[in-house]
Each structure stands twice: as structure tokens, then as C-alpha cells.
Specification:
The chain has 150 residues and is an all-alpha fold. Helices cover 85% and strands 0% of the residues.
């Protein structure tokens, strides 16, 4: 097998892993937040109260998939370069995808707690989103530092 083909193949695999692992994190995170929001809505309906708009909490962990996609395109573009290391790009894709995905999972869990708290009290929306923003920052840092490594 041609070394360049292997190099490009490994780089492309890393690009796909950056997206795939980020998206897995987003799926788990939005699933956790969605389940908590459904439970919070149920409590509101059972108590005859107006249900709060909790969809922003449910969707908070989706942005990590976008970060993975942006990183995928950057890695894929570099993989075609003759001086690129396919193994390095593959490892960058794996570990960056894991970091971004972990951020999404934990953001989703926190968003679920925020949805429950907001539905119960009707207060704290800005504070809850500030906490989600701090968790989001981890994913942004991972993406930016991965760009520097590429």
C-alpha cells in the first residue's frame, strides 16, 4: 500500500472521529437534558402550572457537534497535504472528539438539572445558562487547541 494513501486514510479517519465522537456526546447530552425537561414539564402539568420553555436547555449540547464538524473539515483539509502525519491527525481527531463529546455529555446533564430547577422555581435562567456556558468553553478550548496542533 502506498504510504501517502495510508497517511490520507488515517487523517480522514481522524477527521470522521472528531465529528463522530463530538456527535455521540451531543446525542447523550441532549438526551439527558430532554429526559429531564419532559419530567419537569410533567410536574408542571400535574400541578396545573404553566409549563416553562425548557427547549433551550435541551438543545444546549448540540453545538458540540458543530465544533466537531468544523474540526473535521480542518483535519480533512490537512490530511491531503503531503507533509501531514496521518497518525498524528488521527490521534488529534480521537482525543479532540473525546474532549468535545465529554463536554456535551456533562453539559447535557447540567442542562437537565437546570431545566428541572427552572421549571420548579421560574427563576435563575441566566445563572443556569452561565453555568452551561462555562462547560461549553471546554469544547471551544479543545477545538481551538486542536487547530493549533493541526
Amino acid at each position: 500500500m502506498d504510504a501517502n494513501v495510508l497517511n490520507v486514510g488515517l487523517g480522514t479517519a481522524g477527521a470522521v472521529m472528531a465529528l463522530g465522537l463530538s456527535a455521540v456526546g451531543s446525542a447523550i447530552g441532549t438526551g439527558a437534558a430532554g429526559a429531564a425537561a419532559v419530567g419537569a414539564w410533567k410536574k408542571c402539568y400535574a400541578q396545573g402550572r404553566q409549563a416553562a420553555n425548557l427547549l433551550p436547555f435541551v438543545g444546549a449540547a448540540l453545538t458540540q457537534t458543530l465544533y466537531g464538524m468544523i474540526l473535521m473539515f480542518a483535519i480533512k483539509g490537512k490530511a491531503a497535504s503531503p507533509e501531514a502525519s496521518g497518525i498524528a491527525l488521527c490521534l488529534i481527531g480521537i482525543f479532540a472528539g473525546l474532549g468535545i463529546g465529554a463536554s456535551a455529555i456533562l453539559q447535557g446533564r447540567t442542562a437537565g438539572a437546570a431545566a428541572d430547577a427552572y421549571a420548579e422555581t421560574g427563576k435563575g435562567f441566566t445563572n443556569y445558562f452561565a453555568a452551561l456556558g462555562v462547560i461549553e468553553t471546554v469544547a471551544i478550548f479543545v477545538m481551538v487547541f486542536a487547530f493549533l496542533a493541526i
